[in-house]
Model the fold of this input.
Amino acid sequence: MKVVGLSSLNVLELAVSVLLLTFACLLYLLEVSDPGPLPIPSMSQDLNNLREMFKALNKSCFILGASGETGKVLLREIVQSRIFTKVTLIGRRKLTFEDAARENVSQEVVDFEKLDEYASAFQGHDVGFCCLGTTKAKAGEEGFIRVDYDYVLKSAQLAKAGGCTHFNLESSKGADKDSSMLYTKIKGQVEAAIEELNFDRYSIFRPGVLMCDRQESRPMEWMARKLLVPVASLFPTAITTPVLVLVKAMLNNVILPSENKMELFHNKHIHELSKLGETET
Done:
């Protein structure tokens, strides 16, 4: 009897097939997993009416991290929507804009190493958006902790002292203060530390891998996004989040009345929240 063995090539093909099947099953499970109900009350009015009611309140906001990918899109959408009477950018340098509408945006240049000296920059804002962050690869471990924990927490403290009542934090999928991974651990720790500040309303957004055309050169991140494009088309809420989806979710949420002191939006919540009002005429 002749015994037919597997060649090394066949073994490799089989291994790759098993890995791809396992990955597809994992994505499917992530896509169909239930993160719980969307943590907002049922709307008794349509989003357009709520938006107009919010505008009438003449609220002001600030954005931290407006030079980043999320911050840039957030600023654009806020300016276009005109839901705030005053918008202030708080950052380490002044930004320049070609769009005339954005030239009317106020800017406060601060030294994040001496934030206590710039407390006035955080005064008089009703709503705060924090899109501040870096990576360990770019800033090193110490630099990452300083930006994503120290700068973010100190900014939140000054915002609370300055009268901010609704603080919105861009966090990350998997954030967990007890995580063994530095990135998700720091994200979870700063979430918890800000919650202790007791804002009237505190909204945490945990998006997946942000899908955007980042201007900053991050080759590995760029390659990962390219590989995730087909994944995003098949499993849109599993592990990816287009930046515009995140921003729309943030702005839809801010105009929704809520009695929740703390709101935690997972990736599926973010996708669902971003679609509110799309069917309105």
